[in-house]
């Protein structure tokens, strides 16, 4: 028999009943919070009405007792808040001490100072090699490789320098990303081998009649740049760099009279570029590879090869911290790839896809016991505008990350990875003059503003998930969220 809807027709009566139940069910501090529910929700309703927005929010204790919910099952785009699902899964599945490993093989014997074969660098998916976000680690792989070859007395490589980027297949760019994002540094492909955040930095000079390229770092001789640029008041420039292409387009407009306008573009073939760069680096130290460098996206046969050295990344908790603090898409996609690969072990490769994180969706739906409809993810970073999740699903993930009511950030890698509101990262301007202490991840794109994380109030942590879609200006969503938090936790 179909169950009747027992919600009273009079919304005021229903809200009073809910409040009375809440006061009975959650004594102590929570009573004060429940008393502030309606005024706080009214702030969000007013924002929705004035800006044509759709809003969802859930607030709970750190152990999952829901204190407030509004549109908690509405499917909305979370943007970069998606990274929380990815980094949380990485910590749970891989462990906070996990390190990516890049192995270097000698595919042949070493005799009379000659490697009688090729040198193969087998990528382990590490997104941090020569990364802009870890400047102190720059160049470590090349230095270690030169030292390893010198210790073996190698002065000549009869074959070639090859970089194997086949760990996750060759589809590094997600088909669900927008074309205007692909080609820019934040929309670069992520592969089994990654270098320099898979990006190239260009410096443009706009002093002349037309903007020109002043310099490129790192230099990429195989890539031809085409500029369809103009100068003007509007600063709007983007790159189109198809994967594995030798042609790149820069279009749009930049302000006039700038000598070094910085622009970061995607690297179309990181494996080939890395192989060429390493070959040149070795030559500078007197180690000459006779054949041309190559990038591989189909795994070679390693059965006759010997491991020359292992290169390991920083531990996962550090990578997760950078991912959430700096909102690094390439790091998030690399973590998604490794989680997907780990989850697919023994289950075939059907879960592994560059375009949908099926394994991660499966992991979270089983863990949270929600339907896949509430976790409709299309990538690991949130760059795809197709992603849809519910505030309830985000809250479930947050409360499952073992953040106790009195947990110190140093005791929990996930909590520590979230920037402090008013002080750090993308939430530096949020709650700037507030006495509230919060650790939050933000997510934004056109018409999307989301926040998720933890608020500390009177010595206890509370989980908060907020999504706003369809508003004309994201600044109004940020203001409404700030006002909500201030009213609720007053």
UniProtKB/TrEMBL annotation:
Transmembrane segment boundaries: 12-29
GO molecular function, one term: serine-type D-Ala-D-Ala carboxypeptidase activity
Keyword RNA-binding set for record: no
UniProtKB keywords: Carboxypeptidase, Hydrolase, Membrane, Protease, Transmembrane, Transmembrane helix
EC number: 3.4.16.4
Entry keyword annotation includes Transmembrane helix: yes
BP terms from Gene Ontology: peptidoglycan metabolic process; proteolysis
Family membership: Belongs to the peptidase S13 family.
NCBIfam families named in the record: PBP4
Name the UniProt record assigns to this protein: D-alanyl-D-alanine carboxypeptidase dacC
Organism annotation: Porphyromonas macacae
Gene: dacC
């Amino acid at each position: 028999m179909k169950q009747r809807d027992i919600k009273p027709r009079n919304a005021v009566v229903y809200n009073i009943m809910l409040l009375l139940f809440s006061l009975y069910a959650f004594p102590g501090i929570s009573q004060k919070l429940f008393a502030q529910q309606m005024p706080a929700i009214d702030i969000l309703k007013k924002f929705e009405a004035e800006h044509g927005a759709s809003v969802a929010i859930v607030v709970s204790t750190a152990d999952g007792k829901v204190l407030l919910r509004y549109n908690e099952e509405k499917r909305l785009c979370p943007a970069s808040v998606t990274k929380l699902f990815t980094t949380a899964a990485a910590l749970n599945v891989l462990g906070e001490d996990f390190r990516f490993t890049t192995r270097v093989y000698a595919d042949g014997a070493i005799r009379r100072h000659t490697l009688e074969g090729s040198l193969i660098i087998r990528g382990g998916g590490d997104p941090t090699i020569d990364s802009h976000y870890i400047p102190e680690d720059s160049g470590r792989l090349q230095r270690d490789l030169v030292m390893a070859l010198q210790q073996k007395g190698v002065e000549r490589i009869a074959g070639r320098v090859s970089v194997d980027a086949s760990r996750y297949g060759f589809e590094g760019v997600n088909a669900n990303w927008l074309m205007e994002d692909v080609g820019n540094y934040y929309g670069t492909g992520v592969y089994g081998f990654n270098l320099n955040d898979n990006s190239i930095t260009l410096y443009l000079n706009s002093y002349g009649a037309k903007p020109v390229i002043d310099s490129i770092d790192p230099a990429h001789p195989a890539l031809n740049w085409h500029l369809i640029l103009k100068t003007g008041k509007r600063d709007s420039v983007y790159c189109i760099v198809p994967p594995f292409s030798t042609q790149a387009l820069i279009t749009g407009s930049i302000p006039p009279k700038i000598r070094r306008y910085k622009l970061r573009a995607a690297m179309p073939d990181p494996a080939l570029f890395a192989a060429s760069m390493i070959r040149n680096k070795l030559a500078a130290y007197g180690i000459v590879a006779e054949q041309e460098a190559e990038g591989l996206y189909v795994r070679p046969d390693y059965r006759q090869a010997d491991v020359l050295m292992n290169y390991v990344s920083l531990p996962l908790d550090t990578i997760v911290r950078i991912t959430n603090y700096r909102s690094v898409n390439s790091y998030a996609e690399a973590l998604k790839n490794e989680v997907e690969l780990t989850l697919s072990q023994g289950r075939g490769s059907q879960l592994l896809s560059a375009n949908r994180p099926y394994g991660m969706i499966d992991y979270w739906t089983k863990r949270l016991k929600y339907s896949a409809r509430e976790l409709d993810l299309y990538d690991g970073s949130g760059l795809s505008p197709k992603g849809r999740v519910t505030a309830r699903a985000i809250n479930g993930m947050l409360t499952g990350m073992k953040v106790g009511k009195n947990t110190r950030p140093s005791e929990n890698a996930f909590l520590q990875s979230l920037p402090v509101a008013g002080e750090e990262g993308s939430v530096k301007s949020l709650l700037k003059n507030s006495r509230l202490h919060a650790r939050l991840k933000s997510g934004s794109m056109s018409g999307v503003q989301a926040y998720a994380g933890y608020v500390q109030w009177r010595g206890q942590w509370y989980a908060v998930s907020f999504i706003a879609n369809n508003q004309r200006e994201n600044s109004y969503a940020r203001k409404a969220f700030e006002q909500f938090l201030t009213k609720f936790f007053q």
